[in-house]
Design a protein that fits this description.
about 210 residues, alpha/beta, globular, single chain, Rossmann fold
Length: about 210
């Protein structure tokens, strides 16, 4: 059993990870600025912000891995990068693994091709948060080797707007956006949570970014 902390555990990605981790018998704590209206049974919910040093310290205390699933939008725009950097520094000292759920925007559309957020059809409204999460990835790559981290980019079609079915399967990629034979890039919440908990249980991407999709 691992002790898993999820910052943003009341959101779509974080909630999917927390639910899957709890299903497998791990001890799960969710940190968020507001408590959920419909909590997942047996998940411990704590009010606390990634931007608060005390909350970060408390989250790291006794944890095996801390996963950040917070998007830099709304009043968090421009702040998530600094929050993750601070968490990473504290985690390195504490010997805790850090996982970050970024966006699809920084993935390349093909080997040697442009990143998704540099393509003409990428929504302009999402570009600022995609750029911030790309900077987070660069920051993690520049951290000391003592920090164990992973960064996962979901496919282009991922979110509460399209929860999808639980297929019990997924594919893993690296720096290139995964698409199916019809050009669709998608994964449901349950299978995304499954992929992250698989990585926690059997680490395959140490100090590396990966992506998952059907």
């Amino acid at each position: 059993m691992a002790r898993i902390v999820v910052f943003g555990g009341t959101g779509y990605a974080g909630g999917s990870i927390a639910a899957e981790a709890m299903r497998r018998g791990h001890a799960v704590t969710s940190y968020s600025r507001r408590l959920p209206e419909q909590p997942t049974p047996d998940v411990e919910y704590v009010e606390g912000s990634l931007l608060d040093e005390t909350a970060r310290s408390k989250a790291l205390d006794g944890a095996d891995v801390v996963v950040v699933t917070i998007a830099p939008r709304g009043d968090m725009a421009g702040s998530v990068r600094a929050g993750i950097a601070a968490l990473a520094a504290q985690a390195a000292d504490a010997g805790v693994r850090v996982g970050v759920v970024g966006g699809a925007g920084s993935l390349h559309v093909a080997d040697g091709g442009p990143r998704l957020f540099d393509t003409p059809d990428f929504p302009a409204d999402y570009r600022p948060e995609s750029l911030e999460m790309a900077d987070v990835l660069d920051d993690l790559r520049a951290t000391p080797e003592t920090l164990d981290w992973f960064y996962v980019s979901p496919p282009a079609g991922f979110g509460a707007f399209a929860p999808g079915e639980d297929r019990g399967t997924y594919r893993v990629g690296g720096e290139v956006l995964l698409t199916d034979d019809e050009g669709t890039s998608f994964i449901g919440g349950a299978d995304f949570g499954r992929a992250i908990v698989d990585e926690i249980e059997q680490p395959a991407h140490r100090r590396a970014r990966f992506t998952v999709a059907y």
